[in-house]
Amino acid sequence: MSRIHVTARVNGDKVEFLCDPRETLLDVLRDNLGLTGTKEGCGTGDCGACSVTVDGRLICSCLMLGAEAEGKEIGTVEGIANGEELHPLQVKFIEHAALQCGICTPGILVAAKNLLEHNPAPSETEVRYWLAGNLCRCTGYDKIIRAVLDTAAEIRAAN
Amino acid sequence: MAFDKLNSSDFKYIGTRPDRPDGVDKVTGRANYGADAYAAGMLHGAMVRSPHAHARIIRIDGSRALALAGVKAVVTRADFAEDVEGEYWNVLDNVMAGERALYHGHAVAAVAATSSLIAREAVALVDVEYEVLPHVTDVDEAMQPDAPVIREGQVSTSVPAGLSPNVVGYYEHGHGDLDAGFAEADLIIERHFTVEAAHQGYIEPHACLAQLGPDGRGELWCCTQGQWFDQKFCAALLGIETSALKVTASEIGGGFGGKTTQFIEPVALALSRKTNRPVKVVMNRSEVFKASGPTSSSSMDVKIGMTNDGRISAAQGTYRLQGGAFPGAWAMLTAQCAFAPYQINHVKTTGYDVMCNRPKVAAYRAPGSPIAAFSTESVIDELCNRLRLDPMEVRLKNAAREGTRSSYGPIYPKIGLVDCLEAAKAHPHWTSPLKEGHGRGISCGFWFNFGMETSVNLMLSEDGSIQITVGTPDIGGSRASIALMAAEELGIPYENIRVNIADTASLGFNEMSHGSRVTFACGLATVEAARDATDKLCARAAAKWGISEEAVKWRDGCAIPAGSNAGEFDPLPIEEIAGRMGRTGGPISGHHSVTPDGAGPSFAVHIVDSEVDPETGKTEITRYTVVQDAGRAIHPSYVEGQYQGGAAQGIGWALNEEYIYDEQGRLQNDGFLDYRIPVASDLPMIDTVIVETPNPGHPYGVRGVGETSICPPLAAIANSVSNAAGVRLTHLPMSPPRILKAMKERLG
Question: Could you tell me which CATH number the domain at B43-133+206-282 has?
Answer without folding.
Answer: 3.90.1170.50
